[in-house]
Amino acid sequence: MPEWPKKPLFETEMRHKANRFSCAVLTMSDKGSRGERVDESGAMLQEMLQKEGYQLRAYALVPDQIEAIAEILVQWVDQDKIDLILTTGGTGVSPTDVTPEAMRGVIEKEIPGMAEAMRAASLLLTPHAVLSRAIAGIRGRSLIINLPGSQKAARENIEVLLPTLPHALDKIQGGTSDCAALRNSTEAQI
Amino acid sequence: MPEWPKKPLFETEMRHKANRFSCAVLTMSDKGSRGERVDESGAMLQEMLQKEGYQLRAYALVPDQIEAIAEILVQWVDQDKIDLILTTGGTGVSPTDVTPEAMRGVIEKEIPGMAEAMRAASLLLTPHAVLSRAIAGIRGRSLIINLPGSQKAARENIEVLLPTLPHALDKIQGGTSDCAALRNSTEAQI
Amino acid sequence: MPEWPKKPLFETEMRHKANRFSCAVLTMSDKGSRGERVDESGAMLQEMLQKEGYQLRAYALVPDQIEAIAEILVQWVDQDKIDLILTTGGTGVSPTDVTPEAMRGVIEKEIPGMAEAMRAASLLLTPHAVLSRAIAGIRGRSLIINLPGSQKAARENIEVLLPTLPHALDKIQGGTSDCAALRNSTEAQI
């Protein structure tokens, strides 16, 4: 069984870098938006991001509606210039799950490798991992990543990407740090 | 080498659930449609689905033509309300292979993780696995999954997904069973 | 850790087959096009392809501009009938990285499994592998594959696909060799 990169490889540098970036969490849940369910995943993600060093700037809970989802994502990127947005919920195969469809109208560049890596890591834990239709992509200088609605799955998924997020955000915003150099230093530590 | 989930994890429950769903098999083959090749993959898939407990409702063999493929898929979903459709053939890189192109006009939501998992499992057996352009997706309340034309490859591919199909079909049709609960019970058995 | 198929499985046959096909290398680099960086990746890929037996027919270095990239790819396929085109650079998440966007307007069929396999293999070496947005696809009878800009990453990525390329090119051009037979002979050697 391959070991997925769940832990930051050089923790101090990661923390330092994450401090530069703002973040927000968006929860998609029909039940949650009617007050019928506590948003455990959204709370967990906010806590995790702050622990990583990101500046938490916004949180919202919206129903599973394409327009509502797209509207707040666009506002957070275009007006509020939030660097990193994590969403939770609406990525499955139920008729109400429309997060990926909302993303299609929001992102300008897709990053398929992020979703592939999250699903591949989950698949080592459960065959149901194939049902996540989560996508990740760039709008402007912001990165938006979909996560499943279950707290456990959301945590397992984002842990796969945490090590690379500060570097990704730096590049998305035009940083010219050398990937190869960073990579060599990473490999030297392995 | 990671063990891919080839076997149903809790067989009794799976059989029970599969009984609720109808299925069909569509074979794409220019040679087969001219009677020049016996459709071994289509026969294998019909047998496998029935053994899993699904109610076999339809089978057809069509040439590798986008319109012919799309027409029968739409009919099986919109008119016949078939829950699960497996296709075999036309997923490769030959000029005649157009199954994915036909799917684009039929499905409303893509489930990329299903195709990724099938290819990843096949890649452990042969480097040619990368050539399958198979996709899986949802139209209405039906699930359509492309498989390669070779009997061996089709079997290896669908075996990766069999454990999750009844749960997937339940969710696609609006079932509200808790994924997390199902998942925990699965993990408890591992 | 799964062993990725980095070496041709039956070397003699592969060499023989590669001899039938022409190839070209396209490097995307703003710095390179201004003469500010030596194109090490492009040079490495040309050497590697010739060593595999392919007939090198063209090489170019263009800036990271969608129109410039698309124009030369279309010319190499439609006019020069080059069988295999490898590109290097422009696949990341920087604002200047637009190779995948250029590809969207060029390819007629995408082969998602090629990009998935390259990313999955890279992910075993570095968590930054998820940032490659490289795609592979078919235009006419030609195969175009994006690779990252770093020489090391480009080499690691293409090595995953080298074993299957001659067979892929044969099929793309309408060859009717039996995949299953080839596959069985491959497996027999493993």
Structural features, described:
3 copies of one chain form a homotrimer. Chain A has 190 residues and is of the alpha/beta class. The first copy, chain A, has a single domain (11-189), classed as Molybdenum Cofactor Biosythetic Enzyme, Chain A (3-Layer(aba) Sandwich), CATH 3.40.980. In chain A, 46% of the residues lie in helices and 17% in strands. Chain A is built from 9 helices and 6 strands; from the N terminus they run H-E-H-H-E-H-E-H-E-H-E-E-H-H-H. The first copy, chain A, has helices at 11-18, 30-33, 40-52, 66-79, 99-104, 112-123, 151-161, 165-172, 179-189; strands at 22-28, 55-62, 84-88, 109-110, 136-139, 142-147. The first copy, chain A, has a 6-stranded mixed beta sheet, sandwiched between helices. In chain A, helix 3 runs parallel beside helix 7 (151-161) and helix 6 (112-123) crosses helix 7 (151-161). The first copy, chain A, is globular, with a radius of gyration of 16 Å. The two termini of chain A are 17 Å apart. Chains in contact: A-B, A-C, B-C. The A-B interface holds A 1-2, 92-95, 100-101, 112, 115-116, 119-120, 123-133, 150-153 and B 2-3, 5, 9, 109-114, 116-117, 120, 138, 141, 143, 160-161, 163-164, 167-168, 171-172, 174-175, 179-180, 182-183, 186-187.
